């Protein structure tokens, strides 16, 4: 039944167009009841879509994605607490805030990269809050790593030789599951050309045979 269900999902995806790029093969559908917007995983950032990398891996379009209710305290410098570059003076898709201290503001891509490097030590870069902060980031679509922090040198050396080996697509279509990988064909695993911390089966992200590289939504 699993194989047949997978084939059915693939056939259905082939008939759906991505609302961001308008190309066919969109395999991700907004989880909001009654919403039929579909999109490709690589198109998610441009469409301001959110995928929650926890629980049931729910995905949402720009209209139905979760929004932060916290409003950061007024600041004169308006800088990202991570890269120290300018951010918007309000919470948006691209600008996020810490729900605990309400002082830290950061770019979405900056906090995502911090989450992947910090691993199990992930917390607010300003107030160091961990529990409410982590829960909020997961809800907002930030993907966390369960590895030790990359700055622990001994651990980093050990982990550096380990190649990422699972599909992180919101909907994995592979009959063998997310960790099944083949050398060629639709179930070969593509790693992000920028960070190599995320991967996808060729078919799960609708990658063409002529594709030479793939970049994850975080990068």
TrEMBL record:
<dbReference type="GO" id="GO:0005634">
    <property type="term" value="C:nucleus"/>
</dbReference>
<dbReference type="Pfam" id="PF26054">
    <property type="entry name" value="PHD_G2E3"/>
</dbReference>
<dbReference type="InterPro" id="IPR051188">
    <property type="entry name" value="PHD-type_Zinc_Finger"/>
</dbReference>
<dbReference type="InterPro" id="IPR059102">
    <property type="entry name" value="PHD_PHF7/G2E3-like"/>
</dbReference>
<feature type="domain" description="PHD-type">
    <location>
        <begin position="1"/>
        <end position="65"/>
    </location>
</feature>
<dbReference type="Pfam" id="PF13771">
    <property type="entry name" value="zf-HC5HC2H"/>
</dbReference>
<keyword id="KW-0862">Zinc</keyword>
<dbReference type="InterPro" id="IPR011011">
    <property type="entry name" value="Znf_FYVE_PHD"/>
</dbReference>
<keyword id="KW-0436">Ligase</keyword>
<keyword id="KW-0863">Zinc-finger</keyword>
<keyword id="KW-0479">Metal-binding</keyword>
<dbReference type="GO" id="GO:0016874">
    <property type="term" value="F:ligase activity"/>
</dbReference>
<dbReference type="InterPro" id="IPR001841">
    <property type="entry name" value="Znf_RING"/>
</dbReference>
<dbReference type="InterPro" id="IPR013083">
    <property type="entry name" value="Znf_RING/FYVE/PHD"/>
</dbReference>
<dbReference type="GO" id="GO:0008270">
    <property type="term" value="F:zinc ion binding"/>
</dbReference>
<protein>
    <submittedName>
        <fullName>G2E3 ligase</fullName>
    </submittedName>
</protein>
<dbReference type="InterPro" id="IPR034732">
    <property type="entry name" value="EPHD"/>
</dbReference>
<feature type="domain" description="RING-type">
    <location>
        <begin position="80"/>
        <end position="127"/>
    </location>
</feature>
